[in-house]
Design brief:
Elements lengths: L1 E5 L11 H9 L4 E8 L5 E3 L20 H4 L13 H8 L3 E6 L5 H9 L6 E5 L2 H10 L4 E6 L6 H8 L3 E5 L5 H9 L3 E5 L4 H10 L4 E4 L2 H10 L6
Parallel strand pairs: 1-2, 1-9, 2-4, 4-5, 5-6, 6-7, 7-8, 8-9
Antiparallel strand pairs: 2-3
């Protein structure tokens, strides 16, 4: 089972914080997914929502505040909102899957990636035009197109964007999509699976799928406890 930590290890530590990334890294996951947004002074910071209301006592909107203003706000775990550079510095050689929540950040994103030439990075996005732009600007960069609803169109959408893979709502996964992804050599990641039995079922049917989870410890423990099959 290839496990990806969702927003770090969002079920174990506050999502999209350095503590959450560190926890996922300590658990030895295959990769760590997290979200980024732009501040008003065009700095990339880790946050899933447009504002800080779920992760702090403030309603500050990311795009309406500078990095300095946002970093005056303590998150619920006592940390400050991390920058993309801080996240990549922490992760070192651990595979980072950066989900970009805004479309107008290509220059800032590529500049940050260039500052960390030894990092292993994939960019994921629901924005098809952003995926296409990244492929044009940096064809060697790994890009995943994310999708929640369009089961029958996703393969064609990924091919048109010239992306390297897809990041799917797990309930869109089906034998045809999996077969076509294999045929066209596309990576396939699904979100967000927290039940070990469901994760096990998925990997039995689709062995090369990456499983994104809030609880890497649960899935790893379940995998370790499974009896080995003797041949």
């Amino acid at each position: 089972m290839k496990i990806i930590g969702h927003r770090g290890a969002a079920g174990l530590e506050l999502e999209n914080t350095l503590a959450s990334l560190r926890k996922a890294q300590e658990l030895g996951v295959a990769g760590i997914e997290f979200d980024v947004r732009l501040t008003s002074d065009r700095q990339l910071v880790l946050c899933h929502d447009a504002d800080l209301s779920r992760v702090s006592s403030s309603n500050a909107i990311i795009k309406h505040n500078t990095l300095a203003e946002l970093q005056k706000i303590k998150l619920h775990n006592g940390e400050l909102i991390p920058t993309l550079d801080e996240a990549l510095n922490l992760l070192g050689g651990t595979w980072a899957i950066i989900e970009v929540k805004v479309g107008d950040c290509v220059a800032e994103l590529l500049a940050a990636i260039d500052r960390w030439p030894n990092a292993k990075i994939t960019v994921a996005t629901f924005d098809h035009s952003l995926a296409s732009e990244l492929e044009r600007e940096r064809p060697q960069l790994s890009v995943y197109l994310a999708e929640r609803t369009r089961m029958t169109e996703i393969i064609d959408l990924v091919r048109r964007a010239k992306a390297d893979g897809m990041d799917l709502n797990a309930w869109l996964l089906n034998p045809l999509t999996y077969w076509l992804a294999k045929r066209y050599k596309m990576d396939l990641m699904v979100f967000t699976i927290n039940n070990p039995l469901i994760a096990r079922f998925i990997t039995k049917l689709y062995p090369d799928v990456l499983i994104c989870t809030d609880y890497p410890d649960r899935l790893q423990k379940f995998t370790a406890e499974q009896p080995k099959i003797k041949h």
